[in-house]
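Researcher: Go.
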Amino acid sequence: MPIHALDSLNRHIFMPFCMAFVIVTLFMARHGETSRFERMLDYVGKRTLDVYVLHYFFISIVHLQDVGKYMEESGNSLLMFVLAVGLATVITALSVGVGNVLHKGQLIEKLVYGK
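Model: Structure:
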């Protein structure tokens, strides 16, 4: 068997299997444990409707086209990653926070969410 066939076999069968095994093992080891990060993700997960409904308004404020042009010109992958994660975190936090305020008033909740 040629070397490139072994390389392909390694890349397409063996490595994905190993990664799946590692991920499943990590999840099984943490089963039943909770951390502050997991509680925050659970909190956001229970408020996905707020994020879905409100994130558009926060994204439109940012002018992502200008940010995208700047990032394409810079070519800095690390900066792009940090900016994407930071922007997603801020927009999610704003959406959940505004959603909590909107859920306080019955009239506003009915108008925004139709409940």
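Model: The two ends are 64 Å apart (CA to CA).
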